[in-house]
Structure formats: structure tokens, C-alpha cells
Write a structure and sequence with these properties.
Layout: H1 5-21, E1 37-41, E2 52-54, E3 60-65, E4 71-75, E5 84-87, E6 91-96, E7 101-107, E8 111-117, E9 120-125, E10 137-142, E11 151-156, E12 167-171, E13 175-180, E14 186-190, E15 199-202, E16 215-219, E17 224-230, E18 234-240, E19 243-248, E20 263-269
Parallel strand pairs: 1-3, 2-10, 11-13, 12-20
Antiparallel strand pairs: 3-6, 4-5, 4-7, 7-10, 8-9, 13-16, 14-15, 14-17, 17-20, 18-19
Length: about 270
Amino acid sequence: MPPPLSLRFLLVIAVVVPLAAISLVWLHPGVTQAAPVTVQVSSAVPAFTPRVTLAEPGQSIQFSNSLAQPLQITSASHDPAQFSLTVPSNGAATLTLTTPGLYHYFDGSTAHVVDFQADNDVVDSLPGAPSQDLPLQGWIYVPGNAGVPYDSAIHVPALHDLMSPHAAVVHVGGSVLLHNGDTDAHNMVTDPNDPTGAAFELLGTDGEPAIGGAVRQVTFTATGLYHIYCSIHTRVVGQVGGWNVVVPRDNVASGYADRDPMEAWILVVP
């Protein structure tokens, strides 16, 4: 018997996304070069802002640093391409990416990679970092030939209280499919700073064994950046730049040892 429609749709997404990632050239005849996009860090908001950035292949990405110390922007080891650049104190530096895909980066002077779990490089703060609960990290999405998708997927792998990937980009009116392949149920909530709010339970394989865990389709009708997390396996410890800072709930979440919270960022563009 074929699997239910929702599960077949999820499987199709899992196949299509890697195929798009192998395209290395994106040509737009007659289109002028897009203006640079900016990522900022300041003492008032000591986090990469915005947390998720959309950049066309070849488009300049300017990092602006208002901190008293330089930043060492470093790509995670599993990114589509590797990069590193220094952003001086009270200065700026520019990066250009041409290989499509999702990039995860961090400030190598205050954070480091401690693990690789659920297809994500796990970044944690170094001793002496401005915040032990919020490592300086962010994501850049570079679309391929097909452009920004209308639909994407975030998966909760078996035996993990984590989301994979930690970031996604879709068009407004599009959807993100959330699939729970873990045995546990998860209670997904949106950050109060999100453009719109929602909360729902996502049953695991114990609660929805026939389809290998619950699948929820979340459609976004407003543009902006969304922060979602599991209220069972994380706890809120503060706010930075208006966004909740969450950490793994003590001795409950699988990411507790790595300080890897069950959260994801979704950028919705026009």
C-alpha cells in the first residue's frame, strides 16, 4: 500500500532539495547586479542580524561590526563552500558566494564547532564569549537555478530533540513541512517577535506509528523572519534584539550536552 499523501510529499522534497544544490551557475541575462545585503553585529544586539540572509549568487554580503573587537567570520565545515574573513572593530568586510545552498557561519573568535548532529554543525560559545547561551552564528541561503522555493521541509530525526536543518527560506504563500521522526512528541511554538504566531503539537512515531511520525504543513502568509522552537525541550533564558534566546531544557533534550537547542529559523520573502 502506498504511503499517505503527506508522507509521499515529504519524500519528494527530500529528493528535490539536494538536486538543486548541485547547480553552480545562476545566470540572469539583462538583469543588473543586486544591491549588497547587510548583516550587522552591535553591542546593542550582539547577534548576527538578520539571523538568516538571502543572497543571490555573486551578490555582495556586507558584514558590519560595531563591537569593540574584530569578528572572524568562519564557515561551518559542511557548507557548500568554505570561507573565512575578518571584520575589523567598527568596520566592515564583504563576502561573495557563488555556489548555491545553505551556509552556516559563526564568529571563530568567540565560538567554535563542537559536534555534528542531525546534519547540522553544532556551534557553541567559547569561554569568555559575550554570551554562553547565544553563540555568534548565522545562516546564508544562496538559491540555485530554480530560485527561492515555495515549499521546504524541516525534519526531526529519530533519537534527536533537534530540527534539521536549522534554517530555511521560502516565498510568502509557501509552506514548510515539519516531520517528526522522533519517538517523542514536540510542542512547536513561534517566537513572540515573529510576524505571526502559532503553536501546535507534533506527535512522534509513538503517537503516529502508521505514518512514521506526524507531518504538519505550515503556510506563511506574511513576510519576515520566523523563529520556532519546541517548548518541551527548550527553555527561554532571555532576549537579544527582541528575539527569545532558548537553550536545551536540562537533562531532557538530546542536545543538552552540546548546548544545541531544538529551534529553527525560517525566512519568508516576497
